[in-house]
Every structure is written in C-alpha cells, then in structure tokens.
Specification:
The chain is of the alpha/beta class and about 500 residues long. The chain is built from 17 helices and 20 strands. The strands form 3 sheets. An 8-stranded parallel beta sheet has the order 7-6-5-4-3-2-1-8. A 6-stranded mixed beta sheet has the order 10-9-11-13-14-12. Helix 9 packs across helix 17 and helix 12 packs across helix 16. The model has no long low-confidence stretch (mean pLDDT about 95). It binds NADP nicotinamide-adenine-dinucleotide phosphate.
Length: about 500
Amino acid sequence: MICVSLARGRHRYLLTELRHLGQEKVGLVELRLDCIQRKVQVKRLLADRPCPVIATCRRKQDGGHWEHSEEERLTVLRTAIAEGVDYVDLEDDIAKSIPRFGKTQRIISFHDFKRTPNDLRGLHSYLADFDADIVKIATFANHPNDNLRMLELVQSSDIPTVGLCMGEIGTPSRVLAGRFGAAFTFAPFNPEKILAPGQIPWNQLCDMYQYDAITPSTKVYGVVADPVGHSLSPVVHNAACAAAGIDAVYLPFLVPKGHLRDFLKKADHWPLSGLSVTIPHKENVLEFVSSQGDLVEEIGAANTISFDSETRESTAFNTDVSAAISAIQDALEAQDAGFGGRLGLKTALILGAGGAARAIAFGLKKQGVEVTVSSRTTSRAAALAELVNGKVVDWSARQRLPYDCIVNATPIGMHPKVNETPFEANHLRPYMVVFDTVYNPENTLLVKESREVGCRVVTGVEMFVRQAAEQFKIWHGDAPPEGVMRSALKRATSSVRIIE
Ligand code: NAP
C-alpha cells in the first residue's frame, strides 16, 4: 500500500487534497501537520476524513517544518489521538511521554539523514519496545547495498515495519518496499513538495512503477549508473513491460564507480534478473560477469547484463552497436539510399570518444566504413582511433574535411544547452548522413540544421529505442513493443522540457 503524504501550509488546501485522495480510493494518507502555517486545527482536519490518516508533526531536526515549541507539538499529537486519528507518528524520544489511547495505532519512527546505521536489527527492537504497532525507520543510503539491508530487515520483522532509505541511492527501497513485506511506503502527493530526499511522487509510483502490482514474484531489472537521475530507461522499460503484460519492475540504481563490485556481489539478494549498464560502468562491468556475448570482448564494453534465473550466472551484451548501425541503415533505406543492406558510406567522422562513440566506431568499422575520430581530449580520440584502425583529427580542425557521415557522440546540443551544435551549419553538405546520438531533445540544433541543408538525418531516439528493444528481447524473450517504447521516450523528453 502507498501512504500518500500531504504537506500544505493551509487547512483548506490540505482538506481539498485529502478529499481528492479519498475519491481516488487511496488507502492511507499522512497529514504533515508541521507544514501548516497557522494554529493547527486538528479536529477540523480529522472530521469526515474519507480514508485512514496518519497524524505526523515533524521537528526540523527530523526533516520537518515545525516552527513552534515542542510543548505545542506534543499537544497537537495528543489532540489528534484524542480525536481518534487512525495512526500517530511518534519519534522514539517522545514515544514514552505520549501513551496509547483509544484505537489510535502507534508508529514509532526514527530518522537518520546522514547514514544507515550498521545495527538496524538492534535499532528495530529498541523502537518496537515503545509499545509500537508499526516501526518506521528512514535512513540515508550511502551505498546501494544499504537498500538491501533495510529491505531484509523489513522482511524478517515480526511486527509491521516501514523501512526506507533516503537519498537518490535509496530509491529502490521505496519502490520495492511492498515486495519485501513493508506495511506501506510513503510518496508525496505533490511533486513540488518532496518531503525527504529521494522520494518518488505518488503518481509516478503508481503509473510508472505500478507499485501495487509488485509482488514477491515480480522480476527486478534496472539501470546501474552514476549519475542515474537523468536516465529515461526506467520510463521506457516499465512502459514496455506494462504493455506486454510482463510481471517486472525496472529501477534506477545509483551505483558509484567504487561500489559496483559490492552491488553485483549481492545481485541474488534483490534478486536481479537483468541490468542496463551505463556511465561510468560500461567497461569495468566486464570484470564482474561470468561470460560475454558476441562483440563484447572485441569492443571491451557492455550495456546489458542478463542473470540466469537458475544458475544465477551473468552474461554481458552490447546492444548499442547494432542499435546505432540499424538506425542508420533503416533511415537510409527509408530515404531510398540503402545499398543492398550495406550502409553505402565510405567515410565517417565521429565526434566524441566516450562509450557511445566507441560502440558506433566499432559498428561502422565492421560495415567497412573508414572512421575518423575527433574529441575534445585528443588522447582519448587517438586511443579510440587506434582500436578501430581509424584516423584522428584535432577537435579544432574537425570541420575542415568533408565526410559521408557525421556522428555526434558528445552531449553537445543536449537539454538544456539546446542552442549548441558540435558541427556548424555552413560545413554541412546535402550528401552527408548526420547521426546525432543526443535524444533529449530529439530535434537538436544539429538535426534541424542538417534537415535544412538537405542531409539524411538519424536521431538519437532511434538508437535509444533500439538498444532498449534489444535488451527487452534478451531479458524477456518476447518481441519488444517498440511503438510503446518510442512514445514513452518522446513523452518523457517533452515533459522534461516543459517542467524545467
Ligand atoms: P561519455 O563516455 O562521457 O563521452 C562523452 C564524450 O563527449 C567524450 O569524448 C567527451 O570528451 C565529449 N564531450 C563532453 N562534453 C563535451 C563538450 N562540451 N565539448 C566537446 N566534447 C565534449 O558519454 P557517452 O556515453 O559516450 O555519451 C555521449 C552522448 O551520447 C550522451 O550525451 C548522449 O546524448 C548520447 N548517447 C545516446 C545514446 C542513445 O541511445 N541515443 C546512448 C548513449 C549515449 P572528453 O573526453 O574531453 O570529456
């Protein structure tokens, strides 16, 4: 169950939202009384409530907004109990001074905004001893495995427990709470009123993650990256699984470079069925897998891992290469420029020398295209050029010579710097194929100017959808719903632009 948190400064807004959630058949609502700016009218808020309610009045030291005295805070909580509120949230240090009364159930809570303590079990039994009906522990995750320690505590608890990790690393603990038997998870109603770091808004938890449909048999997938917040893979894969009726959830795992080994060692505890791999792990992930699929060894980079459900062996794949090449191929064929399945390109200039550039350089070389690499850091460009027997050109000279194909594999032109291009319009020629890997926005300045000049254009959306579709095939064995994936991606990129 999701407990939706309401945090408004005025009683009437709080009541309007509470009524709305009642109509939406929400099972539990938390009223954050500390956010109310005037004297809290407890009786007014609790009268005619449409669903069960938790009364919470959080001090600043516990991440709340309460500005008045501690005595007044305790009075608010006691009044809520006297008015018969369904649940009251009591921090451990005040739990003894507010005894059980009537039918109100006691949530004994603990917050640590810096770390996830080592002895979670000891902490849990300490909190349970305050006559708790429910124990709530919210701690800050500094390591991806803090999520697992918290979820395993929840799973083994003998009284109802809510255990959540805060911060971006902690997101998986919020989504998987129910799968591990938590009494409920928390989500703010209003995306602009995030109450604790790493919270996921209610509508996202319902619509994108389908929280209420996650059960112990739901398969767990995700993307490992640092940073991971910008990744649109959760949007695309969750939409695809929902459309295909597959019982799976796909999460963002923020895994710093030094934590990848530990994270993968515990893959069986989640248990993970598959992972997308991106910055900065595409190369070093190969150290930790049991085997490598076609091309991966040659390229030295993977973007996909699949875990065998029986042997638990992990296999690394690279779906970037075929995604990039098939995107170019199909675009050329659609524009009547294919050459019997070959690309028909002789030379290509790749801008950038990172993970995307590497996959595309290998793919183009395999197609017999002569590759030239240009990157801001010349030594990186030279290293990549050497790997594909290609040439290197200085970044300042990248526009001097003509090529059949220009590939942007840098973030130049990506939101929010949408007025930038890595290749000026006056150097574009109508015979060129221009492939911009940037997908947010799809119509970058480079894409727009290339179309104006009459170039044949391939966008980053095509590559992104194809690499995700191939991952879907590897993990689920089914034909991927590419149309659903494409529209989910386009919707997400346009809404990012609207919000920001
Ligand atoms: P990466 O490994 O970090 O490499 C980025 C490359 O871009 C590096 O060569 C970097 O040069 C260069 N670069 C970064 N900022 C630059 C700037 N302001 N001016 C000039 N060069 C700059 O990243 P990646 O994984 O290859 O991703 C690169 C881009 O490809 C992403 O931004 C994304 O838009 C796109 N991408 C698309 C897909 C898709 O499916 N469509 C998939 C992956 C990536 P230095 O070495 O000097 O830092």
